[in-house]
Amino acid sequence: MFEKLTLIGIGLIGSSIARAVKLKGLAKTIAITTRKAATLEEARSLGLGDIYTRDAAEAVEGADLVILCTPVGVYADVMKQIGGHLAPGAILSDVGSVKGQVMKVLEPLMPAGVHFIPGHPIAGTEHSGPSAGFAELFIDRWCVLTPEPGVDPKAVAKVEALWRGMGMMVERMTAEHHDRVLAITSHIPHLIAYTIVGTASDMEEATQAEVIRFSAGGFRDFTRIAGSDPVMWRDVFLTNKDAVLEVLQQFTEDLVRLQRAIRRGEGDTLQSWFTRTRAIRRGVVDAHQEEMEPEKAARLTKEED
Asked: Among candidates 21, 179, 45, 34, which has minimal Cα distance to 100?
């Protein structure tokens, strides 16, 4: 599908792309670049690519597809390094979970003749680094593409085919709509998880030890989410702040409503709320959108084969 794929950044998502592309034969050559020597050597030891370099400009030379897999906060700096080295007709994409700010920052830096097709594979775990990736991460998950009107439809179709080749379902939407949807489905849940786990860490030492020792399923889920890459999530909240603040305001109002119901002993209100939200959980399960760990993904893939 592609002669040369360059991955800039090789954490969970980048390394999973490398593994899936190799497994499915979606690119002849994979070039990997990252600023940390230790991370690059880890990727090399895992055999994730064919070319390894810390020079991003060198990595993108001759590439027909370049995917940014770094935190969104460094996109502009990366683009300044690679912009003059992107081949005419090349496709530039990314995996960031914010799209509006990404497009605002990158489009003015885009060289003529390069197709910019922002993307967001909605998949992941709380783990990070080259060793955290696995080829099955994307299977039956959604990837959202947010190309601007007028972008070459053939280039968009190639990026879409790449993600489908790795097992994903693909949807196209505007960047603004993407950011609002992800604010409620991903960004706010992470903010809540960081807050709750942070509250536990602020408790007195004896209580904190008991919270950890007697963690029930709900708190364990929060600690899993709160274990995600702090740099990535810092950048997410700073670059999608409008949508996050809008949804956070609505969440705060709902939380106050439930607080009032508890204070007043309004059992019917609480039961009605919990019944309605329980249906959302069933919908998530029915849509097969639960988190997929490497072992479970590999087992399911083997069973299907």
From this structure: 179
